[in-house]
Design a protein that fits this description.
Elements (H helix, E strand, L loop, with lengths): L11 H12 L6 E7 L10 E2 L3 H10 L4 H8 L7 H8 L6 E4 L5 E2 L6 E6 H32 L3 E4 L8 H13 L4 E2 L2 H7 L9 H5 L4 H11 L5 E3 L5 H18 L6 E4 L4 H14 L6 E4 L5 H9 L6 E4 L1 H4 L10 E9 L2 E4 L16 E8 L5 E8 L11 E4 L7 E4 L2 E5 L2 E5 L2 E2 L6 H13 L3 H4 L9 E3 L1 H14 L1
Helix pairs in contact: 1-5, 2-5, 3-4, 5-6, 5-12, 6-7, 9-10, 10-11
Bound molecules: adenosine-5'-triphosphate, 1-O-pyrophosphono-5-O-phosphono-alpha-D-ribofuranose (PRP) and nicotinic acid.
Length: 479
């Protein structure tokens, strides 16, 4: 069996809906879906979108081959063989718009819009949400860590604690988009061109007769890349002094030790002591790396305590997003075809936050020309032209419509870019380096009040008056 075919990486209900549409002859009706999330993770003021590359590769790879068809034919739904035959020819021929990876995004705005037949669009829901929910979550966690780390090096160490192999590599990539500098996972390095880095485990020290011998042997084997883990027995009593001896011997061979790593104990105290000992030995160039269940709060605390740590290895807390292990992104129908005509649809809910916004939409970032800061994200129906024409905009809060302001002198940046047109990829996916730069530029668009980690200001995501009216009319109709 091939494990790399993602075609059936979908919930059964998608296939069942496709089947029922086929049975009733409505499978070629058009539909528009939008993906968005309703609540920002970690109490953060923004999220960092990621997952598009994985989704694009998935869409292009969908093939119902003999093995998948044979498997489906054995399901108790007893799908008609003619339907299964149709699946053999499944190719996505629709349109996709998406925000770019690395974009700062907010709750309740479309991140991906998919247009096509119901047959082809239903299938994509599960995989799309699986990819963007996880990767956006990790990129957002990474952005929080980058924010407190300042210009320090951040190394992603999470693979051993990640929720399996795909999460490890795609999580490493998401972290890198949002500002991590390297990963310990060589496969992620090879797949995506992420710089890789590695020190050594306690086992290396335990395997030798003495700590000094262990350090010396590693330094001999890896003279250009050696970082020594100094906490196996006694960090200040033996680890750092032994590392200093080895660094001095390396100097005689014309080599420089890169770093020492602290992985337990009081990282603030130990880093200050280690820095003092290294400096006294004339080893100012030897950096100090810290690891041990770090997250943004501990890193911020360590910095506040004056820790002398140059780079941070972050594993578990990042790769599992342990304080909030899932993002609740959803995929909702916003438009259907009825009797050959497109019409907006709504999902009503007792919970006002869960009422969907009908109609196929675009979203624009409204940037105030005088300050250069983004002041709101503005959702319009796709056929509206006010924003593109630079007309004055009424920005009002959809939950509290009496809170409003006008925008006149603004630039509008369309966030949704065409990715597939009639099944053909039309967007060249940027390199990881380009995405990192783009993400860093994105951050400059927002006031610090929106970006701060704790109790950030709520950034407005608003509806155009036309979108708002449509939503109110449909709510009225179903009341
Ligand atoms: N100065 C500090 N201030 C705040 N948190 C710290 C400080 N130093 C270390 N930490 C964090 O506190 C936690 C300590 O974990 P733990 O109680 O397991 O101690 P440990 O030193 O790792 O012990 P062990 O030797 O069993 O690994 C880690 O998350 C670590 O990053
Ligand atoms: O703490 P995290 O943020 O998850 O970072 C990864 C951890 O994985 C390693 O520990 P482990 O005990 O697995 O192996 P070791 O023998 O190399 O310390 C490493 O020393 C870090 O502590
Ligand atoms: O290179 C390291 O130090 C490393 C890598 C993965 C996990 N823990 C540590």
């Amino acid at each position: 069996m091939r494990y790399d075919n993602l075609t059936l990486h979908t919930d059964k209900y998608e296939i069942n809906m496709m089947y029922a549409h086929w049975v009733h002859g409505t499978d070629q009706d058009r539909a528009v879906f939008e993906a968005y999330f309703r609540k920002l993770p970690f109490g953060n003021g923004f999220a960092v979108f990621a997952g598009l590359r994985r989704f694009v590769e998935y869409v292009r790879s969908i093939r119902f081959d003999e093995e998948t068809i044979a498997y489906l034919s054995k399901q108790e739904e007893n799908y008609d063989p003619e339907f299964l035959d149709k699946l053999r020819y499944y190719r996505f021929n629709g349109n996709v718009w998406s925000v770019e990876e690395g974009t700062i995004v907010f709750a309740n705005e479309p991140l991906v819009r998919i247009e096509g037949t119901v047959f082809e669009t239903h299938l994509l829901e599960t995989a799309l949400l699986n990819f963007i929910n996880y990767q956006t979550l990790i990129a957002t966690k990474a952005a929080r860590i980058r924010q407190v780390a300042g210009a320090d090096l951040l190394m992603e160490f999470g693979t051993r604690r990640a929720q399996e192999a795909d999460a490890a590599v795609w999580g490493a990539r998401a972290a890198c988009i949002a500002g991590f500098n390297s990963t310990s996972n060589l496969r992620a390095g090879m797949m995506f061109g992420i710089p890789t880095s590695g020190t050594h485990a306690h086992a290396w020290v335990q395997h030798h007769d003495s700590e000094e011998q262990a350090f010396e042997r590693l330094a001999e084997a890896l003279p250009n890349q050696v970082s020594l883990l100094v906490d196996t027995y006694d960090t200040i009593g033996s680890g750092v002094p032994n590392a200093i001896k080895v660094a001095k011997r390396m100097e005689k061979r014309g080599k420089r030790m890169q770093a020492i790593r602290l992985d337990s104990g009081d990282l603030a105290y130990l880093s200050k002591e280690a820095r003092r000992l290294l400096d006294e030995a004339g080893l100012r160039y030897v950096k100090i790396v810290a690891s041990n269940d770090l997250d943004e709060n501990i890193i911020m605390n360590l910095k506040a305590q004056g820790a002398r740590i140059d780079s941070w290895g972050v594993g578990t807390q990042l790769i599992t997003a342990s304080d909030q292990p899932s993002l609740g992104g959803v995929y909702k129908l916003v438009e259907r075809e009825k009797n050959g005509k497109r019409e907006p649809v709504i999902k009503i809910s007792g919970n006002p936050e869960k009422v969907t916004t009908p109609g196929a939409k675009d979203v624009y970032r409204i940037v105030d020309r005088s300050t250069g800061f983004a002041i709101a994200d503005y959702e319009t129906l796709t056929d509206e032209r006010d924003v593109q024409n630079g007309e004055p905009l009424e920005l009002f809060d959809p939950v509290h419509p009496y809170i409003r302001r006008k925008a006149t002198e603004y630039d509008a940046v369309a966030l949704l870019k065409p990715i597939f047109r009639e099944g053909e990829p039309v967007h060249e996916l940027p390199s990881l380096e380009e995405l990192r730069e783009y993400h860093a530029e994105q951050l400059k668009l927002f006031r610090p009040e929106v970006l701060r980690k704790l109790n950030p200001e709520n950034y407005p995501v608003v509806l155009s008056p036309k979108t708002w009216r449509l939503k109110m009319d449909l709510i009225e109709r179903y009341k």
